[in-house]
Design a protein that fits this description.
By secondary structure, chain A is mainly β. Helices cover about 0% and strands about 60% of the residues of chain A. Chain B is globular, with a radius of gyration of 14 Å. The chains are: A mainly beta, B mainly beta.
Chain lengths: ~110, ~120
């Protein structure tokens, strides 16, 4: 069966520090992969999606970037974190018409 | 462009009462519609989905939703609320564009259930 792993579960980082969040999928090949952010009291905002290795599309201009170095690996990065980057980050993949989510990373920028 | 509107960011019901969470969508193509539930500090779990066929869709935990094309709605209901239903609920629409699925979420509705 397909599973999605996302880590770390929680992260506290100072302003200006770099960020790397990783997501991997098992049990499927060539998935569509997504990064969402959920800010406090707000819905889910689509940040990036990828349809294949090295293919990244950005939904909104921001301080973050994404990469897909392998078929089932999706990385969210930042060179210098801002306070506004705090939130709950979710990785997802779609199979057919349905999306499957990781357990999320709670990022607090201090 | 496709979008999803959830009416009411917070809904509070008594245990045993009807749960009704509202969702309206806009889509220029036939949509696939979903309801997800999120418990604190966890990922999203699929409750139910509509793709094609029967417009009344039954999901897990006693929830169901009805796709009404004329009203562009996909409201979520449950006849009798349980304390364990307290969570945040997201309506979503997906459509296929350029060979990939793009999943767009509403802002979410936080459901509180009180004794």
């Amino acid at each position: 069966s397909q599973t999605i792993h996302q880590w770390p579960a929680t992260l506290v980082q100072p302003v200006g520090s770099p960020l790397s969040l990783e997501c991997t999928v098992e049990g499927t090949s060539n998935p569509n992969l997504y990064w969402y952010r959920q800010a406090a009291g707000r819905g889910l905002q689509l940040l990036f999606y990828s349809v294949g290795i090295g293919q990244i599309s950005s939904e909104v201009p921001q301080n973050l970037s994404a990469s897909r170095p392998q078929d089932r690996q999706f990385i969210l990065s930042s060179k210098k974190l801002l306070l506004s980057d705090s939130g709950f980050y979710l990785c997802a993949w779609t199979g057919g018409t349905e999306a499957f989510f990781g357990q999320g990373t709670r990022l607090t920028v201090v | 462009a496709q979008s999803v509107t959830q009416l009411g960011s917070h809904v509070s019901v008594s245990e045993g009462a009807l749960v009704l969470l509202r969702c309206n969508y806009s889509s220029s193509v036939p949509p696939y519609l979903f309801w997800y539930v999120q418990y604190p500090n966890q990922g999203l779990q699929l409750l139910l989905k509509y793709t094609t066929g029967a417009t009344l869709v039954k999901g897990i935990n006693g929830f169901e939703a009805e796709f009404k094309k004329s009203e562009t709605s996909f409201h979520l209901t449950k006849p009798s609320a349980h304390m364990s239903d307290a969570a945040e609920y997201f309506c979503a629409v997906t459509y296929i564009s350029g060979g990939y699925n793009k999943l767009i979420f509403g802002a979410g509705t936080r459901l509180a259930v009180h004794p």
